[in-house]
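## tool: complex_structure
## caller: assistant
## args:
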Amino acid sequence: MGSVAAGLLGALTGLGGGVVIVPLLALAFHVNIHYAIGASLISVIATSSGAAAAYVREGFSNIRIAMFLEMSTTLGALFGAFLAARLASGIIAVVFGSVLIISAALSTRKLVEPLVAGPPDRWASRLRLSSSYPTARGPESYEVRHVPAGFGLMFGAGTLSGLLGIGSGAFKVLAMDQVMRIPFKVSTTTSNFMIGVTAAASAGIYLRRGFVTPGLVMPVVLGALAGSAIGTRVLVRAKTKWLRLLFALVIVVLGAEMIYGGVTGRF
Amino acid sequence: MAQPGSKWPGSKWNDQRVEGMLGTLLQTGVVISGIVVLAGGVLYLLRYGRVPAHYETFDARRGSLRDVLGVMRNAWHGDGRAIIQCGLLLLIATPVARVLFSMIGFALEKDRLYVLLTLIVLVILLYSLLGGAA
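## result:
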């Protein structure tokens, strides 16, 4: 029942539930890491689909970019789920811990709107990825760059998602705004769409392997749903800067614990 | 009448409109699956609430709820665990539905390239859920 808290915390802080749920289940509740990942994947879908309606209304997300990149993330997710069955739990824990620490570093990074210069990507125009998004000054158009590099990075993000049961939203956003030069608001909302689809691609495999177990997933999912409902309302008023910093700290500690546990064979 | 974002001014379908409908669809799906999971959870806890669960190791006997048909059959008999699993399947289906409806949206916009791209994503998702070696 304590896993309700994980769902809440994950949604409150915005980095996604998976990042908290897996370490909490594995470290505090001694749940087998594969079960923890299965539960986490489902809660990632819950948060993504639950938040989608709100994001869609704002009109920032770009379904063309999402759909194109999902070819890459879903294949990556299948590959990640394939790897998960073949790697020892300890190795998965070490990878998980490292990814946690990296995402903590990413989450504290200053959000700078990418500079746009030079001609648009040949692929971007062929795939009609460029679009516009609403701003206070009316619709603003944007171009998409470095499409092949972004596509490749998304495979990596998908693999991490399938291997570790996280949404890997931080990596998706990084690839979209830093590499493909997509405006931050567009990349975060588009990434929310992609997270759900990517998680579904590996959740199916975890389910058929028997790693999605009702008794364990039930409280986690309900917690994530409640958390995302409350979280989106609280987050508007809370001091996000301090919250983010605090959360980043928690994540680093969890990451170190996971690595330590993985190396000493606790999993 | 041309709508903002529409590449084909003659069509009343555009990305925004499709997205708006999808948002509502997803929210409905999430709420329904949440209710199903909660209902199954209450049934499950009434029956097994006092038995401590062990998830330290993988137990193949828990694997009876691995395929769609098996889950539905057990849920029909009022098995709480199967009802939870039904709700979880519904939840997994929401992003799949999102992809499917995006494809229909692209078809209505007569955007063949994106119908094809979306179809590829859909096939990957269905492969994960239904087919192939796990």
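## assistant note: Chain A has a mean pLDDT of 81. The first strand of chain A starts at residue 131 and ends at 135. Handing back to user.
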